[in-house]
Structures are given as C-alpha cells and as structure tokens.
C-alpha cells in the first residue's frame, strides 16, 4: 500500500555531488523509518544509510561516512540522500525502502524492510 519512488540519480564526474530523493504515496512517509540501499551487478543489496522514524538517529556504512547525509522533510513527505565527494566506486543502482510496519522505529538489516522503490542509477566517471 506504500509506493516509493526514487529520483535524482544521473551521471557526474568524480568529486561531484548528487541528491537523491525518496517520495511516498499511499501513506505518510514520516510515519516510517527509511533506508537507502545500493546493489551492484552480481552483488547483494547493501544498506548504505538509514534514518529513524523520528529523524534523530542515523546509520551510515563505513565507506560513505563523512560523504553522504540522510535526512527527511516530513512536510514534503520525502527522504533525501545527499551524496558529496562522489567516487567511481559509488556507481550503482540506489533504492529506498521502508519497513512494512510503522511500529518499526529504526531498521538496520535488509530483512526488516518491506516496501521498496524501483531504484535510481548513479554513475560517477573519472
């Protein structure tokens, strides 16, 4: 019943920035914890950033700490992933996800997520 749609991906040069957006319909996204995942061809889906339902707690995978920032704007029903200092290694499909239950305040493993967007492609050239 929750539909998630990502946008903001594209082609950038190394050192550049992108801001990904995750928008929801069917439910108010502010009621859910949200995570951003990435999946390279032949690899398992990996959690790169997560934000709690309240917005006060965040998680980052080690390789993106200091470069990526996850945030949310409840008024716009949107969660963002600000990506700075992009590297060619960041080239991958990025998807946002939400737990199925609004009772899940913070989700840090893939199995806790039940709603998934279609993904947006990020390509970083060097």
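Sequence proposed for the structure above (126 residues):
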């Amino acid at each position: 019943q929750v539909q998630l749609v990502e946008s903001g991906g594209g082609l950038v040069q190394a050192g550049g920035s992108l801001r990904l957006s995750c928008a929801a319909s069917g439910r108010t996204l502010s009621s859910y914890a949200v995570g951003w995942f990435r999946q390279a061809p032949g690899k398992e889906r990996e959690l790169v950033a997560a934000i709690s339902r309240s917005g006060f707690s965040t998680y980052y995978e080690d390789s993106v700490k200091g470069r990526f920032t996850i945030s949310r704007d409840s008024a716009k029903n949107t969660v963002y992933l600000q990506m700075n200092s992009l590297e060619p290694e960041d080239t991958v499909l990025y998807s946002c996800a939400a737990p199925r239950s609004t009772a899940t305040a913070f989700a840090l493993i893939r199995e806790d997520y039940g709603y998934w967007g279609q993904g947006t492609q990020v390509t970083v050239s060097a």
